[in-house]
Amino acid sequence: MNLDRLYELNDGHLLPKVGLGTYQIRGYQGVDQILSAIQSGYRLLDTSTNYDSEGAVGEAIRRSGVPRSEFYVTTKLPGQYHHFDDALQIIEESLLRLGLDYLDLYLIHWPLPKRDTYVEAWQALIEAKKRGLVRSIGVSNFEKEHLDKIIAITGVTPAVNQNEIHPYWPQESLVATNQEYGIVTEAWSPLGRGSSELSEPVIVNLAEKYGKDTGQIILKWHLQRHILPVVRTISPQHQRNNLDIFDFTLTEDEVSQITNLESVDGRIDDQDPKEYEEFG
C-alpha cells in the first residue's frame, strides 16, 4: 500500500487512511461481504466483541488469500471487561475468535466514567501490548478529560481515539485535542448512518463539481481534517467508491462549509460518552 495512503501512529506503526467497519456484518453472509471489501482493496478491518463479527472477520482473512501481514485488524474491549484480568482474558478470547496470533490495534470501546474503571482497563491494554498480543493500543469515544486521566496516571498515550464524527457532529475541539496529543482520530459513522447528510445541498454541489458521489465528498472532508474514516457498507460498488477518494482535493473553504453543517443535536443516537452506559 502506498505510504501516502497510510497514517503513521505515535508508536511507529501504520494504519490505512480508510477502514471497513463491520457493525451488523456477521455470519457467513458477513464473510462474503468482508471478502468483497478485501477484494476491493480494504486492509483495515474494524470489529468489536460487541459486534459479534470477529469470527466473520477472521474467516474472511483466511479465505482471502491475502497474507496476514497485509491486514490491520482492530477490535474493542466491552465495558463488562474493564477490570485488569478480565480485559487480558477477553483480548485472548478475541484472538481465538479471530484465529489470529496478534491484533494490530485494540481499543477500549467506551470510557463508562460512571463506573470509573477505564484507567484499569487502559493498564490492561498496556500489559497486552507488552505481551505481544496487540501491536497498537487506543481508545474509543474518549473525551479530553478521559484522555488526560489515563495519560497522567500511566504515562502512555493512546495511538488512536475512535469517535463519532460526521458533518452534523464534526467534533472540532476533540479532534484538536487528539492532534495535540499526537493521537490519530478515527471516525465511526463517518457518513452519518442513514441521516440526511448525504443530501445536504453543499455536499451535493461539491459532488457535482468534482464528479464524485456525496459519500466520497464526506470521506474526503474527513481525510483533509486528518481523520481516518471507518465506513460500514455491504455494497461492492460503495466499497470501491469509498476508496476512490485520493484523486481530488477540497479547498479549505469547502472543508469549512461542510464543517459548518454542525448541529447541536447532531449525535446519531445521543450517545454522550460522559453519560453513556454500554451495559446500563
UniProtKB/TrEMBL annotation:
Gene3D superfamilies: NADP-dependent oxidoreductase domain. Residues 31-261 form the NADP-dependent oxidoreductase domain. The keyword NADP applies. The active site is at 51 (proton donor). It comes from the Bacteria. Keywords: NADP, Oxidoreductase. The keyword Nucleotide-binding does not apply. SUPFAM superfamilies: NAD(P)-linked oxidoreductase. GO terms for molecular function: oxidoreductase activity, acting on the CH-OH group of donors, NAD or NADP as acceptor. InterPro entries: AKR, Aldo/ket_reductase_CS, NAD(P)_OxRdtase_dom_sf, NADP_OxRdtase_dom. Substrate binds at residue 109. It holds the Pfam family Aldo_ket_red. The record marks 76 as: Lowers pKa of active site Tyr. Belongs to the aldo/keto reductase family. PANTHER family: 2,5-DIKETO-D-GLUCONIC ACID REDUCTASE, NADP-DEPENDENT OXIDOREDUCTASE DOMAIN-CONTAINING PROTEIN. This is Aldo/keto reductase. It comes from Leuconostoc carnosum (strain JB16).
